[in-house]
Design brief:
It is a single chain. The chain has helices at residues 2-27, 31-34, and strands at 61-67, 73-78, 84-88, 93-100, 103-111, 119-123, 126-134, 137-142, 151-155, 165-169, 175-179, 195-199, 207-211, 219-221, 228-232, 245-250, 258-259, 265-266, 270-271, 295-297, 303-308, 324-328, 341-347, 353-360, 364-365, 368-369, 373-379, 382-387, 392-398. It has 400 residues and is mostly beta strands. The protein has a five-stranded mixed sheet, with no helix packed on it. The radius of gyration is 22 Å and the shape is globular.
Length: 400
């Protein structure tokens, strides 16, 4: 009996030591996500007392809360009347925000009880039709002149670890959908996972554009060359600075499926020997078999929404035109937290990223995070940002 007792105590001590070690290596930076801030950012929306919500922006820019009380706000789209539709993934809801001259008139939950709704896209040929991506399906529904019934166009695989599905119509009028991996690192049995697919509006001709993408949650098109630009989250538990998060580009006219390497490769075609122990005749991470990242970002930044500053934004400084603006949702698997900000990427005339610089900071405070930016959308000379922690939509304008 004494031996059993000593053995149990020893096992408990070992498990406790391993648990503390795991926490110190991987979870020390998780508190900004789970802590409730001492002061909610919605309490700071007074342009007289606090012009910029305790957030830091370049001179001439101001930020305000357009609307609040939208728990879990994620993807947003502007319809033909200038109103906003926003998905609330964790709440299973999609809401409509009616605007009048840029001011909120009302907010209403249109659908509830959905399974992790995320992606939203309006049919470019019929803006009365909204496409909605839930975890396991894509549906379409009429939103004008009245709200119609959902019509499923295609099934999607179950999400596992990454259950968000994002939608977008390309310049070829096809619908594109990003589907994350079911795990942190694994060999996916279902080729639909960790990929970007395109399909016709009726769900037919479902075909893979790119694979080897652990979690490319958001993507957009560059109007200059028609390519997709997508953010990509690297996997966890390899340390504070490895692997990098990424920005990638995809040619939608590619005759082959583009392979970005996950789970075997990451970043600039770096072989992940921590996961992949196989022996190869050739380097498994090299062109033309695997494509390197277009641009590496600080690991665990969690890049999400992105959009280009429109070239016709006459009210914004000229040097900002065609910059890429990206939301860094923020880390949890890093000793010192990173992200929790919006970043500007400066491009040259060949679409090469020259450098990055902070555009909006301040969501991460010594007392926790007061918000986590998600989606980025430009509309009518303003930048709009969703925040799924604060449950808000921000509006950024240039006033100088």
């Amino acid at each position: 009996m004494k031996i059993i007792k000593i053995t149990l105590i020893t096992v408990v001590i070992i498990l406790l030591i391993l648990g503390i070690r795991f926490y110190m290596q991987n979870l020390r930076g998780i508190w900004p996500i789970i802590e409730t801030p001492s002061v909610a950012i919605t309490k700071l929306n007074d342009p007289i007392v606090n012009k910029n919500l305790n957030l830091n922006l370049p001179d001439g820019f101001t930020i305000s809360i357009l609307d609040k009380d939208i728990p879990g706000a994620r993807v947003m789209v502007f319809d033909k009347l200038g109103n906003i539709w926003v998905s609330q993934t964790g709440q299973g809801k999609i809401s409509k925000i009616i605007l009048n001259n840029g001011e909120v008139q009302s907010q209403e939950v249109i659908w509830s009880g959905l399974k992790n709704p995320h992606g939203l896209a309006l049919d470019p040929e019929d803006p009365n039709i909204l496409y909605i991506a839930e975890e396991t399906k894509i549906s379409k529904v009429s939103i004008y002149p009245t709200i119609g019934k959902f019509e499923k166009i295609i099934d999607l695989p179950k999400g596992g670890r990454h259950f968000t599905r994002t939608l977008g119509f390309g310049p070829d009028k096809r619908l594109y959908v990003s589907i994350g991996s079911t795990c942190d690192t694994c060999n996916e049995p279902d080729p639909r996972n960790a990929s970007i697919y395109s399909l016709n509006k009726d769900g037919s001709d479902f075909k893979q554009l790119a694979k080897g993408l652990r979690n490319s949650v958001f993507f957009i098109w560059d109007k200059n060359d028609g390519k997709i630009w997508a953010t990509e989250m690297g996997h966890d538990y390899l340390g504070d600075n490895t692997p990098p998060d990424e920005i990638n580009t995809f040619d939608i006219k590619s005759p082959i499926v583009l392979n970005y390497g996950w789970p075997v490769c990451y970043g600039n075609n770096i072989h992940d020997t921590n996961f992949d122990k196989n022996t190869y005749i050739r380097n498994p991470c090299m062109m033309p078999f695997e494509i390197p990242s277009y641009f590496d970002i600080q690991a665990h930044s969690a890049p999400l929404g992105l959009d280009f500053v429109p070239d016709n934004y006459s009210s914004w400084p000229k040097e900002y035109q065609h910059s890429l603006i990206v939301a860094f949702h923020g880390s949890w698997n890093r000793t010192v937290p990173t992200g929790y900000k919006v970043v500007r990427f400066i491009l040259d005339d060949k679409e090469k990223i020259l450098k990055q610089e902070d555009f909006i900071t301040g969501w991460l405070t010594p007392n926790g995070a007061i918000g986590r930016p998600v989606d980025i959308v430009f509309n009518n000379n303003a930048l709009y940002i969703t925040d799924d922690k604060a449950g808000t939509i921000y509006k950024v304008v240039y006033t100088k």
